[in-house]
Design brief:
The protein is an all-alpha fold. It has one domain (10-46). It is 45% helix and 0% strand. The radius of gyration is 16 Å and the shape is elongated. The relative contact order is 0.10.
């Protein structure tokens, strides 16, 4: 609700939830996945 109204961003909500659970948010935008690991993912899950 707060996000829909524009009071907070999704990133802020993720940070708050992470702090509550004792976890930190990780930026995966620059992550390069291992080709061997990708081959292990069934096609129906990857699409």
């Amino acid at each position: 609700m707060l996000r829909k109204l524009g009071f907070v961003s999704e990133a802020v909500i993720q940070d708050i939830i992470g702090q509550t659970l004792g976890l930190s948010r990780q930026d995966l935008s620059n992550l390069v996945a291992d080709n061997e690991a990708i081959k292990l993912i069934p096609k129906q899950f990857a699409i």
